[in-house]
Structure formats: structure tokens, C-alpha cells
């Protein structure tokens, strides 16, 4: 068996220790004589897995008591609809568009009401984060929406927008649990776990209790109401049991690593290795404004498409996988999530350095 360095944006690398635990527990979970995959979601064993996962998640992110944590399905794209269906009481919302995912979310919300784009960085291919300190927030807006880490473009909103008292909704998919967050600043934050937290199939929603109401848009399906899942502790129907179990193992791993402050330091150290190299290189260049750089997704280019292709092919052959940039932007992108060891980034930089010397 040999493992590669997997720089995929998602589904993405998971901690090796977690995968080993999955393997060890595959046929017989803690003496139950069955796999977690085979368990009733109403069994004591499973209830314990779910409760522990939620408790560990709450501890890691310091989720205040007046917030609920929901384990849902349907991926990030379902939240693009669920957010307006549940929160757009006035049928107005303000969206900050800093990349494709925020753009898609805004487009989906347009099906339910008036969407104001109050800031955008599309003029420069989403290579920066606009100033969000004094936006024209609408008085009748039900919420202000952001995508906090732009997986495709490699930027992060580091200073939250001044929402002028409006509820902040944030898609944190590709930075989930990569650093501490002040949950109390948000009305809702949510993430698909397949970027940084677990296997595809689970979306974790953290929502302030007062936003969970019966008062949703007419026609909102039972499954798409936050209240349905909050009232039933994420067990209204069969949840993605196995995937939640794996997320739970990742939470344990994060706690053993020292929690989110330690993860942030590690992630900063790791990203610095790559960004420092990009800043010094004559061949490779980062594509975004340095102050807005993501710690998780690092896009870069050579400026020559043929050379990009050659680099991606040679890197792949050398065991550095999935470095191709998103199909809409080209170039390269290294996603260096929590589970990517620093060694992986150091070795990638060595490889890039050699490639540069050999292709001058
Ligand atoms: C991947 C991603 C999504 C979409 O998630 P799906 O689960 O594929 O629907 C949404 N937002 C962000 C920031 C993402 O990175």
C-alpha cells in the first residue's frame, strides 16, 4: 500500500489515523458484531455515535448553548435553497459575491425573493475580497450572505462584513474546523463536510435557535425545514449514519491534535511554506491578492498553459495528485486542508523548485 499526497479540493484528504480506525472497526464496531453501516439509526450504539459527534463538534467550535447543530444531507447546494426558504420572511436578502459558490447561492435565492448583490469581486475574476466594512445593507433584508472561504479562487473573508444588525449567513464549507470561529457573530453557518471534515454526504448547519421557526416560505418541504431536523435532533429520517460516524472520528482527531487554535497555527505554517515559495519563484505565481489569501486552497499558475499541463502531469506521476485548477479557472490549485501533513507541502515545494530548474 502506498498513499499519495492528495491535494484535491473535495472530496479531500482525511487523517490517516481516522481511516485506520474505520478499517479496524469496519466489521465489528466496539463488540456490537456489526459495522456502523449496518446499524439501525435508532439503536443505542448509533445514538451514542451521533451524540458524541455533536458534543465534540460543539466543544471544538465553542458553539454557544443557544445554537443548534444539525447533521443534514443534500450537500452545499441544498443549503443554497434551504437558507432562503427558511429565512427570507420579507423575501429580500443581501448577497456578497466573492466567487462561484456565492454566485450560485445568490442565483438560487432569486427563485424565492429579491436578491441584492451588495458587493462583488467578479470584476477581477474573484481574485480579491472587497471592502465589506460599510456596505449598502438594505433595511428590509432578511439576512446578509457570504461564502467565507472561496474554494475555487483561494480567497478568504478575514474581516466579517458589517451587516448593520442583519443576520449573517456564512458558507464555511472549505474552511470548516480549520481555525476557531466566533459562532455568536453568525445567525447560520454551514458547511458540506467533504472539504475539510469528512466523507461527502453530510452538511453541518449551526443555527441560532430564534431563527428556527414554523414561519417558512409556503411550499417548503418538510425535509427542507430547519425546524424538522432541530425538533428531531437530526434523526427525523435516516441520516447519513456512516458518514457522520467518520466525521465524529475526525472531531476526536482534531481534539487530540489540540483543537482549532493549534490547527490554525499548523495551517498557517503549512500555507506559508507554499506562499513563500510562490512569492520567490520566477516561474510559479499565486493568483490572488496576498492579504486575502486562503490557508486552505492555494491557486497558482506559470502563465503558460502548456507548462501548467506539463507540471500537473509530472507532479501526478511523482505522487502529488489532484493539482489541476478548477475547470472554470485553469492553472493549478493545491488544497491543503487540516489532514494534509506539512511534509506534503514541503515535498510539493521541493518538487516545484526542481521543476522550475529543469524547465527554464
Ligand atoms: C464544494 C462547495 C459547495 C458545494 O457543495 P456540494 O456539497 O457539492 O453541493 C458549496 N460551497 C463551497 C464553499 C464549496 O467549497
Shape summary: globular
Strand content: 15-25%
- Ligands, deduplicated: pyridoxal-5'-phosphate
* Name of the top-level CATH class of the largest domain: Alpha Beta
The strand line-up of the biggest sheet is 2-10-9-8-5-3-4
- Quaternary structure state of the chains depicted: single chain
**CATH A-level architecture of the largest domain:** 3-Layer(aba) Sandwich
* pLDDT < 50 runs, ≥5 residues: none
CATH-defined topology of the largest domain: Aspartate Aminotransferase, domain 2
Order of helices and strands: EHHEHEHEEEEEEEHHHEEHEEH
Query: How many structural units, i.e. domains?
Result: 2
* Mean pLDDT reading: 97
Q: How much helix, percentage-wise, in residues?
A: 25-40%
Quickly give the structural class.
alpha/beta
H/I helix tally: 9
CATH homologous superfamily (4th level) name of the largest domain: Type I PLP-dependent aspartate aminotransferase-like (Major domain)
- How many strand segments? 14
Determine Rg (CA atoms, Å): 21 Å
Main beta sheet strand tally, sense and closure:
7 strands, mixed
Termini separation? 35 Å
Describe the structure.
This protein has 360 residues and is α/β, with parallel strands linked by helices. The protein has two domains: 17-257, Aspartate Aminotransferase, domain 2 (3-Layer(aba) Sandwich), CATH 3.40.640; 259-358, Aspartate Aminotransferase, domain 1. Helices cover 34% and strands 16% of the residues. The chain has helices at 16-24, 44-61, 75-87, 100-109, 226-231, 241-257, 260-280, 305-317, 342-358; strands at residues 5-6, 67-72, 92-97, 114-120, 143-147, 149-150, 155-156, 167-171, 188-192, 203-208, 285-286, 297-301, 320-321, 332-335. Strands 2-10-9-8-5-3-4 form a seven-stranded mixed sheet. The protein has a three-stranded antiparallel sheet with strand order 11-12-14. A two-stranded parallel sheet has the order 1-13. Helix 7 (260-280) runs parallel beside helix 9 (342-358). It starts with a strand and ends with a helix. 45% of the residues are buried. Pyridoxal-5'-phosphate binds at residues 10, 75-77, 101, 147, 151, 171, 173-174, 192, 195.
